[in-house]
Amino acid sequence: MKPLTIQLLCSDFRYVMTKRFRRMKFEPNENVLRVTLFVFSICFGILSVSLIALGVVHMGELRWPRPYIGLELLELPTLVIILGSISLVLAFVGCICTKSYNRTLYFIFGLVLCVVLCLELIIAIIAFRNNGEPRRSRTQLLMEEHLKLNGSEYYFSEVEEHLQCCGITNLEETCKGSKRMGCADAVNRLLDDLSMTVGYSTAVFCCLQVIHIICVFTICFATKM
Questions:
Q1: How far apart are CA 173 and CA 136, in angstroms?
Q2: How far apart are CA 73 and CA 79, in angstroms?
Q3: By C-alpha distance, which of 6, 97, 1 is closest to 44?
Q4: Half-sphere exposure at residue 149, Cβ-oriented, CA atoms within 13 angstroms
Q5: Which of 99, 120, 194, 205 is most solvent-facing, going by the fewest CB within 10 Å?
Q6: Which of 160, 131, 129, 133 is nearest to 147 (CA)?
Q7: DSSP letters along 100-124, please?
């Protein structure tokens, strides 16, 4: 074949392929999106139950050091339980939405998920901010003030037994020869574990929630209902 003929054939081929690609439009597979939404809803249901259990466990752990903890940490397990309960309900609603073709229902569901995402971010911020020396100093101060109250010695001895600690700082006369840490440090270690566990759990929950929201709004706006 002559070079001119080959060149013409190549030009025609490029023209036809370019025309076809221009006509092609991206249309997400609605069935795949619905299956993805269903799977994420099931995962959220399981994670929600885990969050509720986490909140209940930490609420029990904070029973003894309750007088020595700030309000924000006392309320943290309660917030986690509320978040887990709301997420469990939304997981059930998400499973129902996979069978629906109502665009308004998807839109409202996506907005509610966004509100819950904001709540998750607030809980994560509260958890991560409650670490560091300022909180440690406040815990020791609250412990010292509580010991000045009448009848608090018996309660403090119960705390020592439960947390396996001795005195406020382990420098008291009664703690000479004891290898246990001070109760202020024991309480702070407990609070550190609580804050990190709740913070990281909620952060992972937020990341999955973003994917969940993207899936819902993609079904709402990018598919034909």
A1: 22
A2: 10
A3: 97
A4: 10
A5: 99
A6: 160
A7: ---HHHHHHHHHHHHHHHHHHHHHH
Residue with tokens 């804050």: 195
Three-point CA angle 38, 44, 45, nearest 5°: 90
Longest dimension (CA), the chain: 108
Q: How far apart are CA 51 and CA 87, in angstroms?
A: 9
Q: Is 31 exposed, middle or buried (0-12, 13-18, 19+ CB in 10 A)?
A: exposed
Of 58-67, 156-165, 185-194, which gets the smallest average pLDDT?
58-67
Q: What is the rounded CA–CA span in Å between residue 185 and residue 133?
A: 11
pLDDT, tens digit, 9 for 90 and up, residues 216-225: 888 877 666 5
Distances in whole angstroms, Cα of residue 90 to Cα of each of 195, 203, 218: 25, 18, 18
Cα–Cα distance between 198 and 215 in angstroms, integer? 26
Cβ atoms of residues 15 and 65 within 8 Å: no
Q: What's residue 73's pLDDT?
A: 61
Could you read off the pLDDT of 74-131 as tens digits, one per residue?
677 888 888 889 989 988 988 888 888 888 888 888 899 999 888 888 888 887 877 6
168-207 in b/e form (b: 16+ CB < 10 A) is bbbeeeebeeeeebbbbbbbbebbeebbeebbebbbebbe
